[in-house]
Amino acid sequence: MSINFVTYIAFDDDTPADLPVFSHKPCIWSFSDDDSLVTCGQRQLFAALGYDPDNAYPTPLYKLRGIPNFVYHSSYVYRYIEDEENVGWLDVNEFESALLHSSIDRTQLKKSVQRLLHTMDYLSGIFGKERVRILFVFIH
Hints:
The chain is of the alpha+beta class. About 25% of the residues lie in helices and about 20% in strands. It has one domain (about 5-140).
């Protein structure tokens, strides 16, 4: 079965420091549209992110969470969402923990995934890790 992996990076550059993160509408960048990260085909990575319909890998650290409340219905993110059960999101700390938990070496991931990780690291350096999240949609 072919699985497409659509990714977005959300970063909270607008919420004042005295309010909870993502209280205001964040910037959402379609990493898949802009960087061709649609079919990286790395099932171990998918499983680490919570998508393993065949239970071929160990239990992930985080389950798929559905559509986060920081994504608004008018957002272009919804164009790929067929089933909320196949949608997840993690902040940078959680993403790093999920990779570590699944024994995934960042340097062994495909270059397109490595670019995603470097982008998340860069934005985290500017806004803070708690203000950067990856949103992913699995389409089959």
